[in-house]
Amino acid sequence: MKKSLKNSNLTGWLLMVLLVMGSCNNEESTNVEEDATFEVAELVASDEADLISEEIANIGEDVYATEEIRATSKSFFLSNFLPECVTITTVVSGDTKETTIDFGEGCEMPNGNLLSGIIHLSYAKDMDAATKTISLSLEDFTFNEVAVTGGATLVRQRSNDNGNPQSDAVASYNGVWSDGSVASFTGNRTREWVEGYGSGFWADNVFLISGKGTYTNKAGDVYSRETISSLRRELSCRFIVSGVLEVSKNDSTISLDFGDGSCDAKGMLTFPNGETKEILLRRFNK
Questions:
Q1: Could you give the 3-state DSSP secondary structure of residue 44?
Q2: Does residue 257 belong to any structural domain of this protein?
Q3: CB 3.0 to 4.6 Å from 154: which of 44, 134, 245, 251, for a disulfide?
Q4: Which residues of 126-136 are buried (b: 16+ CB within 10 A; e: fewer)?
């Protein structure tokens, strides 16, 4: 069956990307001092790569959750997360559902991010299962002109110990930016849906995110990223609003504090020597 998810109010974020919208500005990183190990530009680039991975997972989970809510509540439910230019097609084959999320040659999200290509989802058709494994892959996919390949496996619980939906994802992606720079990013990520599930208004959705992963830049430098304090993602904002992330390269570790809950591009770095610097996370300056 073929269906389009309507975006009744627009938003902000859309996806977060989503995000935003509101009113949060995209900004370039400031010129700040760097120590011998860490280049702030690379930290900012790794944040952009992390956003791509997060946004892909968010889209996939929203589409799946829409199917789940319709099936388990026995009533019609429509998420307003994706705009009308996105086409959702689901085909049932035996015990499996295959869903395509098609952004066409270019579909602009409410926050201004431009996606093209297709996200594929595959999962068992039994929507009453307490736990479900979802396979996610990409086809000719771009995110703000970044060509992205790869995929993820999500193990989704309808209700965790807190009574909230939760997904544990193992993801691996490669990206090629418009300037020719390349990067790979992998990770294990837990996303707990703590607010807004089933409301039909995506802008009130809130997630707590934890996990670890790696970012490898064009030069082959590897940055390890690990959540120290859960990252709070509010879909009404483009940026992570709070939480602490540690980033390690070689034997040095730097921490990135996303703030006190305000929707802004600011982050506070603490270097190995104890010095601190405020940076602005671009999250795709358009």
A1: helix
A2: no
A3: 134
A4: ebeeeebebeb
Domain that holds residue 229: 2-26+41-238
Of residues 240, 206, 235, 207, the one with CA closest to residue 225 = 240
CB neighbours of residue 43 within 10 Å? 23
Q: Quote the pTM value.
A: 0.81
pLDDT digits (tens, 9 = 90+) for 166-182: 999 999 999 998 888 89
d(CA 79, CA 22): 19
pLDDT, tens digit (0-9, with 9 covering 90-100), for 117-155:
999 999 999 988 899 999 999 999 999 999 999 999 999
With respect to residue 196, please indicate whether it lies within any of the assigned structural domains. Answer: yes
How many C-beta neighbours within 10 Å does residue 178 have?
10
User: For residue 190, what are its two tokens?
Assistant: 């837990």
* Cα separation, 207 vs 57, whole angstroms: 12
Residue 51 pLDDT level (bands cut at 50, 70, 90): confident
In a domain, 102, yes or no: yes
In a domain, 189, yes or no: yes
